[in-house]
Amino acid sequence: MFNFARFADWLLRPHCLLCGTGEAENLGICQPCLNDLPWHSASSCPQCGLASNGLTCGACLSQAPHYDATHAVFTYAYPIDVMLQRFKYAEMLNHGHTFGQLLAQSTANRDVDMIIPMPMHLTRIQERGFNQALEIARQLDKNKLDTHSAIRQKLTPPQASLPLKERVKNIKGAFAVNADLTGKRIAIVDDVMTSGASLNELAKALKNAGASHVECWVIARTLPR
Ligand SMILES: [Zn+2]
Ligand SMILES: [Zn+2]
Q: In what order do the strands lie in the sheet with 213-221?
């Protein structure tokens, strides 16, 4: 028989933001949906985050990037790709909150002095209304958040609009660092890491300003198909 009290109770409880029926637990997502998410594998290259046996991959050994480590929460796959797109272009800022909390949990033991969200050019911030990397980084340690030391001085076409091999050229010289970062351990926060060209260019600028160690902290790592 239909039990109104139980139905009302179900209606009033917060539901999973992915399946809409499960009971929201951690971060507004139900446990079965959480288990099914494309979590980034531990058997990845610690430096670039691409698939390996957990050791530094051949590409990083032969031509090391400027960043020293990569931490990704997810692999860029369904439904994370859709959620990130919604967050980025449809202004679903609550997804940014969720992603930021996941990143905060999974990086709690990592040792850095500063957290720098990937800077966005002023023109782009005006177009979009917000910087998605900053929205994610807001959920991390506020005492380490730094939004002024690095700026994006060059307005470039969006990396996603370019073939992979043109991305390195496109982003060259895009960042300026106006701080003495001698000996600092820094995490750069971004939503997605694809070619890694932007993160690498910013890491280079941070190292030139004295940083001793730079890590990429991203929500999702794109893996080659
Ligand atoms: Zn669910
Ligand atoms: Zn690697």
A: 69-75, 213-221, 185-193, 114-117
Q: How far is the CA of 193 from the centre of ligand 2 (A)?
A: 13
Which of helix, strand or coil describes residue 192? strand
Residues 24 and 61 occupy one common structural domain: no
Q: Assess contact for 73 and 190: CB atoms under 8 A.
A: no
Q: How far apart are the first and last CA of the chain?
A: 50
Residues 71 and 157 in one domain: yes
C-alpha 94: how far from its chain's center?
15
Residues at Cβ < 5 Å from ligand 1 ion = 16, 18-19, 22, 30, 33
Closest CA to 184 of 222, 137, 150, 133: 150
> Where in the sequence is the domain holding 11, given as residue range(s)?
1-36
Is there a single domain that holds both residue 30 and residue 60?
no
Q: pLDDT digit string (tens) for 123-175?
A: 999 988 899 999 999 999 999 999 999 999 999 888 888 888 899 899 999 99
Q: What is the 204 CA–ligand 2 centroid distance (Å)? A: 17
**Three-state secondary structure call for residue 191:** strand
